[in-house]
Task: inverse folding
């Protein structure tokens, strides 16, 4: 898309900073802050960004978030804003006069820095905080924002999802900033604690493990904490009339599923399959990387499924009346589970590295269907190859996708990042052999566990495993406008795709809107 907003302004550093405020000025600002007169304390600065090619204003330079502590108070009406307090603990990496946080929705009531009132201003998509002094590299800072978190807004904008009985979250790709102030980019992962107060007859579940549940009159407060760092796009909080079904996965892994209380009997046959899916994935890629897993079934027409960390989000209709074959529904469950290795544990360094998430999740979705349901991967890959040039023309090459349409960030999730990117992995396996490919997969998730990685990192590791430079071979697959010849299949040809009605997800569908099974895909 063409960006109509100005390019991100450079951050203020020691070379280009305003004159240092006097102690008296800082005291005056603190008084204004405590009085709630925040808007007048700072000139309106430009919003910043880390310069991601696809989302130039997303993320913020100069600091690394270590942990979020987010408190929500939900009154029981999912059309009204929640009261919230978000505390951000960060380590400063560059000298900063101001600290920018991503925030686009909801009202800000007050801001404190290390416990003292601080002035702030809203600028574009940022909340810009003045700590009252320059912050230097290596310093720790705690920013506490009292705000509202508004669940209303256009469908498909992301953030809170209003369900039939409450709320859930869907923050991919850049919608966490609609829910809480943050450094909303997957390159800055952090630990999370959620403290959610809700009417006592509702159930709250969030990422990680529950560490407290306290009843106080008509309300109950639930506290969840993650054991491993998480990208903001993967945050999840579910509030509703839910049942939590617990079982055990491989090597004693706790598995907890969250479903509408009225749907326990309907959902149980599906959810009982998860331990076997975990065992299958562990045979392929090694031990599951988090402390728990589960499926969250939401009573909402989202049109997508999403790999929120430790608790994957699924719409109810996938399991109830979708008309899809059972094997295909299971393969989608495997797709979201696979993301916990590819995308959640190993997160993309830039959004252009998205193919590493979706290509791998689609790969294991297809591999599971081949091994467990007899649906041949080669046939699906041949069909993807036939459509690949058309996908590249429409959305760009897998590792250099075109920016999403203006105001439709989720249009980034095009067919080329799903089947078109799984095609790269198929070509790589054809080139280096199955044994080397399987070694590469295991090393990739082990060596980059709970961190971020890029396309260049993948090419380097693939070359190391193969014992030869694969940069030239992979360049065309990753960046070419045309699909390279497929190793071992010289007869495969790519042409403009022929669409079958209903066979392909719409360009504006949210992340993980999945296409129909291969029988329909072959007609598109």
Result:
């Amino acid at each position: 898309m063409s960006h109509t907003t100005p390019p991100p302004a450079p951050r203020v550093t020691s070379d280009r900073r305003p004159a240092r405020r006097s102690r008296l000025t800082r005291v005056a600002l603190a008084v204004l802050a405590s009085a709630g007169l925040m808007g007048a304390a700072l000139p309106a600065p430009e919003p910043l960004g880390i310069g991601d090619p696809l989302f130039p204003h997303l993320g913020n330079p100069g600091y690394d978030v270590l942990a979020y502590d987010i408190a929500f108070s939900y009154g029981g009406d999912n059309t009204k804003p929640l009261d919230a307090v978000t505390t951000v603990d960060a380590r400063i990496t560059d000298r900063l006069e101001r600290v920018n946080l991503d925030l686009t929705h909801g009202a800000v009531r007050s801001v404190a820095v290390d416990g003292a009132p601080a002035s702030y201003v809203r600028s574009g998509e940022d909340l810009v905080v003045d700590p009252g002094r320059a912050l230097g590299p290596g310093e720790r800072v705690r920013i506490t924002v009292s705000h509202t978190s508004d669940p209303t807004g256009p469908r498909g904008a992301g953030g809170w999802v209003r369900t039939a009985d409450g709320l859930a979250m869907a923050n991919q790709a850049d919608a966490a900033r609609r829910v809480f102030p943050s450094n909303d980019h997957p390159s800055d992962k952090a630990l999370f604690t959620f403290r959610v107060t809700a009417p006592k007859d509702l159930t709250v579940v969030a990422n990680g493990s529950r560490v407290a549940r306290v009843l106080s009159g008509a309300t109950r407060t639930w506290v969840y904490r993650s054991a491993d760092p998480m990208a903001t796009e993967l945050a999840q909080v579910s509030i509703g009339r839910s049942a939590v079904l617990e079982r055990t996965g491989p090597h004693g892994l706790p598995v907890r599923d969250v479903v509408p209380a009225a749907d326990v009997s309907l959902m149980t046959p599906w959810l009982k399959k998860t331990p076997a899916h975990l065992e299958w994935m562990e045979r392929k890629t090694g031990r599951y990387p988090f402390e728990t897993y589960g499926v969250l079934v939401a009573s909402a027409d989202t049109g997508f499924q999403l790999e929120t960390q430790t608790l994957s989000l699924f719409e109810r209709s996938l399991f109830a009346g979708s008309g899809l074959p059972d094997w295909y529904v299971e393969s989608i469950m495997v797709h979201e589970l696979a993301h916990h290795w590819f995308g959640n544990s190993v997160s993309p360094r830039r959004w252009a590295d998205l193919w590493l998430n979706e290509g791998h999740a689609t790969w294991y979705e297809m591999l599971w269907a081949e091994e467990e349901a007899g649906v041949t991967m080669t046939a699906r890959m041949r069909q993807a190859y036939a459509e690949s040039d058309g996908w590249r023309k429409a959305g760009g090459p897998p590792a250099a996708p075109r920016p999403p349409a203006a105001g439709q960030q989720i249009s980034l999730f095009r067919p080329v990042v799903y089947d078109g990117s799984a095609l790269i992995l198929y070509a790589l396996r054809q080139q280096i052999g199955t044994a080397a490919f399987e070694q590469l997969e295991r090393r990739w998730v082990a060596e980059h566990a709970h961190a971020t990685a890029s396309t260049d990192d993948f090419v380097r590791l693939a070359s190391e495993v193969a014992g030869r430079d694969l940069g030239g071979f992979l360049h065309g697959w990753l960046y070419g406008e045309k699909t390279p010849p497929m190793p071992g299949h010289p007869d495969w040809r790519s042409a403009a795709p022929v669409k079958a009605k209903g066979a392909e997800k719409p360009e504006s569908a949210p992340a993980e809107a999945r296409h129909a099974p291969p029988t329909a895909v072959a007609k598109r």
Summary: The chain has a mean pLDDT of 87. The CA atoms of residues 80 and 220 lie 19 Å apart. The longest helix spans residues 354-373. The longest strand covers residues 63-73.
